[in-house]
Amino acid sequence: MHLSEGILHLPTLIGCSAVATAAVAFGIKRLDERTIPLNALFAAAFFVAGTIHIPLGLGSVHLILNGMAGVFLGWTVFPAFLIALLLQTVFFSFGGFAVLGANLCIMGFSALAAHYLFRPLFSPVVSRTKLICAGIGSAIVGVGGALCIAAFLLFLDGGRQYAELIYLLFISHLPVMFVDSIISCGVILLFTQMQPSALNFTAKEADS
């Protein structure tokens, strides 16, 4: 989901931008030549998923896939999402430059939560059931976490003024959570067959 410009007030925007800048800087430090291709792949997937959207009140509804990306990328999800969100703003006017930091916090920290919750399921020998649980769980945490962060920012900034919008965002994203779960399971299972090193590598890097 993208929060639109003109919703959040300046103090909230500045605070979100500061937090997002620190997260991006930390993520860049963890990038190297081995992780850049995977980051580019999920940044592109996140960009494409967000281009097909339905405007809804002060935000929008679209596929997110942030939980799946977070499981693979960890902290490096922040620079990846920054590029995707920036391109969506430039080419499609989704969100806006002023609210870029807030949208990055919404997407990035929920993705990071999925990473720390479900990366332990990836190991050299992992069952199909665990991979499916990781796919479903990462989608629920990714979408649900993004909703919670967006709701917190809206409530912090506008109080009960945005109560109906927050309720609408939660209801409208239930189908998104379902579709994200299916796609996430498919991608994780596909990586198991085609590039299992990506799963094991992510877990090792996160533990280092």
UniProtKB/TrEMBL annotation:
The reply to whether Metal-binding figures as a keyword in the UniProt entry is no
What keywords is this UniProt entry annotated with?
Answer: Cell membrane, Membrane, Transmembrane, Transmembrane helix, Transport
Q: Which residues cross the membrane?
A: 6-28, 40-58, 64-87, 94-117, 129-155, 167-191
> Per its UniProt record, what Pfam families does this chain match?
CbiM (PF01891)
Q: Where would you find this protein in the cell?
A: Cell membrane
- InterPro entries registered for this protein in UniProt: CbiM/NikMN (IPR002751)
Main site of residence?
membrane
Bilayer topology term: Multi-pass membrane protein
Domain of life assignment:
Bacteria
Please name the NCBIfam families in this protein's record.
PRK06265.1-4, PRK06265.1-5
* Record's protein name: Cobalt transport protein CbiM
Origin species, per record, is Actinobacillus porcinus
